[in-house]
Amino acid sequence: MELSEIIVHKIQENGPISFCDFMEMALYYPGLGYYTSNGNPIGVKGDYYTSPQLTPVFGMIIGKQLEAMWIAMGKEPFTVVEFGGGNGKLCMDIMAYLKTVPEFYEKLNYCIIEKQTLNWELPEKVSWHPTLAGIPEITGCILSNELVDNFPVHQVVMEDGLMEVFIGHGENFYEQLQPASEELKAYFNELNIDLPQGFRTEINLQAIQWISEIAKNLKKGYVLTIDYGYISSQLYTAQKQRGTLLCYNKHTTNENWYDNIGNQDITAHINFSALCHWGFKNGLTCVGLTSQADFLMRLGFKESLREMSSTKTDVLEAIREEVFLSYMLLLDMGTKFKVLIQEKGMAGKRLMAA
Predict the structure, then answer these.
(1) What is the pLDDT of residues 92-133, one digit of tens each?
(2) If one looks up domain 3-153+204-344 in CATH, what number appears?
(3) How many angstroms separate the CA atoms of 43 and 170, rounded?
(4) Hey, where are the domains in the chain?
(5) Which terminal CB of the chain, N or C, has fewer other CB atoms within 10 Å?
C-alpha cells in the first residue's frame, strides 16, 4: 500500500489529522517515510547537500571546536553525543581530526543517537544508542547538524484566535482550521509574540521537548546546534507571513507537501529564540549565535581547506574544488545556516567561534 493511501485510511477512520501528524508519517512512517525508506536523499543523486557530505574539512572544524570545549572544561573525560548520526560521515571526520590530538582522544567517548540501527561500522570509541536513556549524565558536548529542521511541526494561522491546520480528504487532501490547543497558544505567549491577522507559520513543539531533555541530561558542558532558521524578530515578519515550510526534491524546492508523499523532504526553519528560551528555562545559557560562515572562518576553514588541497596532484582541480567548497559552505549554506552554542556549568567561559 502506498503511504498516501495509509494516510487517507487513517483520516477516513479517525477524521482529520493535524499537519504535524501528517508530516510525521510522511517523513518517518516505518519503511515508507522519507527517512525510513531505502533511498539516499543526500548528494548529487539525492535531494539536497549537507555540509559534511561536501568535505571532511567541515568535520575537522567541528573537531577543533570540540577540542576548544575540552580545554575550557579542564581537559577532563569528555563525551560527545551526536544526534542524528545518519551515514556517519560527520562522526568519521570528527574522529579523524581528534585522533591527531592524542591527549583528548584518550579521554573521549563518542555516542551516536539515531532511532534506526546504523548500517555502517562504528569506529573505535563510538557507540550507538536509539535514545538518550542509555547514556549517563553527560560531561562534554551535545552536537547536532541539520536535526531540528526535520522535526514535524504544527502549522497555525492567526484569525480571530489562533487556529491549527488539520488535514482531511475527499477527492484530494484538503486543509481545515480548528482552534489551537492551549500548548500551541502558550508557545507564542512564552516568546511574547503577537501574530497579525492572517499570519501562517509553524510551531516546533518537538524542538522544545528536545532542548529540555538534553539540558536535563547535560551535567556540564555545551550544546552545539547547526541548522537553518532565524530568531523571532526575523521569523515573524511580513516576508514570512506564509511560513517557512518547504519540500526538497532533486535539489529543487516546492510547496506541494500533499504530493509525492514519502518521496520528498519536508522541512521548516527553526526558531533559535525558542531554543535559547527553553534552553535557559532548563539551565542552558546561550554562549553565542552566529552564521555557519563566521563559525567556520573563525576556526580556520580557509587554512584547513588549502592544506587539504595541497595534497592533490592536479592543481587546477584542487583550485576548482576550493572555489566550489568556499562558495557552498561560506556564501550559500554559510549564510543560510546558523550555529548556536549553549553551555551549562561553564560560568560563561569564552570559546573560539562562540
Answers:
(1) 999 999 999 999 999 999 999 988 778 888 989 999 999 998
(2) 3.40.50.12710
(3) 37
(4) 3-153+204-344
(5) N
